[in-house]
Amino acid sequence: MNTALQTSDEIFYQALVAKDVSYEGTFIAGVKTTGIFCRPTCTARKPKRENVEFFKTTKEAILHGYRPCKVCSPLEKMGETPSYIQEILQEINQDPSIKFKDWDLEQRGIEPSKIRRWFLKNHGITFHAYQRMCRINSAFKKIQSGEAVTAVAFDSGYDSLSGFTDSFKSIFGVAPSLSKEQRIIHLTRLQTPLGTMYACAVEEGICLLEFTDRRMLETEFKALTKLLNGTLVQGESHYFAQLNQELEEYFAGKRQIFTVPLVTPGTAFQNQVWQVLQEIPYGTTRSYKQQSIALNNLGAIRAVAQANGMNRISILIPCHRVIGEDGSLTGYGGGLWRKKWLLDLEREHSPVEMKAGQQTALF
């Protein structure tokens, strides 16, 4: 069956059966036969379709008489960083040369295997690999600021210059002495109501925000590293905290405009298209034809659509607000169900005067 023709409940039930993590935060499943409600990734035995009803929030499920499942704990925020890990991350960010070994963790009453599982689940790497990346990340910045490679190597906690050089080359692909022409593209994962997203940032701002299950993701990463002459490294950027806060406000219906700085490497035409995308008012939609008119280039409808699809910063540059001429939902890299969810969210929280007519005419 074509996914675009399926109802939301049918799509949600398939996601529930598949324990699809990309749907985390999108719906809550209430099981009529047991009276409990679960998150999409619950590992408990799956009920029959007729015994399930879906809600947008845990509050709705509770108001309908359901109680939380003890297996998947749907009242807990998935992906939230535990306080003991937040403290360790803060220490590492303040001094990347610190090395937390298993013994150090045990002295703090932290089971090493627990923190390893958390990092693998939330960042796709081990805790020790994360520490190495932070040290190399810090070393890279020091070398670019003019510090000597040897001094940086030992200040970063390495016992030998050769060990530092090998680690550096494994991440950046070049020796430390040849790295001044490259730059770091910081990479992190964010948890949202529509699933996990990757965010990337350079010193000027956010340069990528995509859902982790986007098919073109690897292509976008390669294009980004080439356009910015950089290397992707998992680590922290001061822009990520602002981005995360603004996204939380957006998904709560409390923010309509983003202020975090953006970096959009591309052609002049692509940047014109992406700028016009940001001018579509919250809670409204436009067609590709209307976007072309906004660009004073009615003959560029196809080119506008192509540039729209090349947008690497989802939600902040709202390509989800562009629909077909007939009002249908056209392709969206994050999936049509996410596009519909975003448009419904914005319609629900848009000013009253916008709700009378969703589409913004330019004629």
**Mean pLDDT across residues:** 82
* Total beta strand runs: 10
| Low-confidence spans | 1-5, 358-363
Sheet-strand content, in percent, reads: 5-15%
The strand order across the widest sheet is 3-1-2-4
- Kindly state the percentage of residues in helix: 40-55%
Which secondary-structure class do the elements indicate?
A: alpha/beta
- The topology string of helices and strands comes to HEEEHEHHHHHHEEEHEHHEHHEHH
Outline type: flat
What is the end-to-end distance?
A: 38 Å
Largest sheet: 4 strands, mixed
What is the number of helices?
15
Rg is: 23 Å
Report on the architecture of this protein.
The chain has 363 residues and is an alpha/beta fold. Helices cover 42% and strands 13% of the residues. It has helices at residues 8-18, 58-63, 83-94, 102-107, 112-123, 127-144, 149-155, 161-172, 217-228, 238-251, 268-277, 288-294, 301-309, 336-349, 352-355, and strands spanning 28-31, 36-38, 52-55, 67-68, 183-192, 195-202, 205-211, 230-234, 286-287, 322-323. The strands form three sheets. A four-stranded mixed β-sheet has the order 3-1-2-4.
